[in-house]
Amino acid sequence: MTCAKVIPLLLNQFPSASFAFAAARSFDTKSKTIEPLFRTQRYRLYCEMIPKKFGQQTFSHHINDDISSYLLYNRQSNFSLNEIQDMFRATYNGTDWI
Predict the structure, then answer these.
(1) What pLDDT tens digit does each residue of the chain (98 aa) get?
(2) By residue range, what is the domain housing residue 20?
(3) Helices (runs of H) and strands (runs of E) counted in the chain
(4) Do the domain assignments include residue 96?
């Protein structure tokens, strides 16, 4: 199930939830190389799709090109944007948001 399908399900259960996700890097089996972390293919797709799917009414959108990560900050969140970003940093080893 994709994040675009999971988010509405979770939002029904937790209306003030925010969502952050890191886009996976592709692996080329032929050359045995891993895509660089900066602006991965999946991340670029998220940057196109997520704003169209979720708009600006419920969420403010925050992106980080360096680590191919996307944050949907719920405008009704019980946590500040900084607190959410700190949670993400703690999960992903100190990465910073733009």
Answers:
(1) 577 889 999 999 999 999 988 888 888 899 998 888 899 999 999 999 999 999 999 999 999 998 899 999 999 999 999 999 888 888 876 556 54
(2) 3-91
(3) 3, 5
(4) no
Kindly give, in sequence order, each residue whose CB lies less than 8 Å from that of residue 11, ignoring residues fewer than 6 positions away: 17, 58
Task: Specify the pTM.
Answer: 0.83
Q: Cα–Cα distance between 88 and 1 in angstroms, integer?
A: 21
Is position 98 within any domain?
no
CA distance 5 to 64: 22
- Tokens representing 13 are 């259960």
DSSP per-residue letters across 15-29: TT--EEEEPPPPEET
Q: Which helix (H) or strand (E) holds 61?
A: strand 59-64
